[in-house]
Specification:
Largest sheet: 7 strands, mixed
Number of domains: 1
Shape: globular
CATH topology: Rossmann fold
Distance between the termini: 40 Å
Strand order of the largest sheet: 3-2-1-4-5-7-6
Number of strands: 7
């Protein structure tokens, strides 16, 4: 019988709280978070997750990024922090309130109109208008059911060396609960299984905030 594996040295609530405090948000980000939290069904990215998105964007030298689900503009602000100064973020959302909040967040942060384009529409409606292999990052937020069936199309947007991220898969611990059969848990399992089993991707799950699935395209 094998010995139990000890818990991760940093896997404590105090450690997680420190990680959130370490990722300092600007006043504009704090205002965007407050607005997003008031919207129904909204799960804005946590500070540690946002900072990770910014680091990934900076590491990739990201010039072109797609955000699926605007999250009230908070993820957009973090991504733009890490993107190149000439980078352009494309954010799409089928919820007009979320998109309106995102416009407000970008305006308050004085993001030039040339650096961000916000599109009203679902992945099924907008993906055919985007260029395959033309993006450094594709970042997904919001309910996974809204984009799970379009995962292949989302992955097709990512260039070799680029990344896909999906926020929220560890929320409530449902994905690890084999008895959970609600539509969102099922969608998360389908997404994580497809990403893990794709030989062209190098994936990892980062247990910060409500969870971040990250995958880099290798070929």
């Amino acid at each position: 019988m094998s010995a139990e594996r000890p818990p991760p040295a940093g896997g404590t609530e105090l450690g997680a709280a420190y990680a959130e405090r370490f990722a300092a948000e600007s006043p504009e980000m704090q205002a965007a978070r407050h607005r997003a939290q008031l919207l129904p069904g909204s799960t804005p990215v946590e500070p540690a997750v946002g900072a990770t998105l910014a680091v990934l964007a900076a590491t990739a030298g990201a010039r072109s990024v797609v955000s699926i689900g605007s999250g009230g503009g908070l993820a957009a602000l973090w991504l733009l922090r890490g993107m190149r100064p000439d980078g352009v973020l494309t954010a799409l959302d089928g919820d007009p309130e979320q998109l309106r909040a995102a416009r407000t967040a970008l305006a308050e942060a004085r993001v030039p109109a040339s650096r961000a384009r916000l599109i009203f529409g679902t992945p099924g409606e907008v993906l055919p208008r985007l260029s395959p292999g033309g993006y450094d990052m594709v970042c997904c937020a919001g309910p996974p059911r809204e984009y799970a069936e379009h995962l292949a199309g989302l992955l097709a947007l990512v260039r070799v060396g680029g990344s896909l991220t999906c926020h929220g898969l560890l929320e409530g611990g449902r994905i690890a609960d084999r008895t959970a059969r609600d539509p969102q848990s099922v969608a998360w399992r389908e997404i994580s299984r497809a990403v893990r089993d794709d030989d062209t991707l190098l994936p990892a799950v980062l247990p910060m905030g409500s969870g971040l699935l990250v995958a880099t395209r290798r070929s």
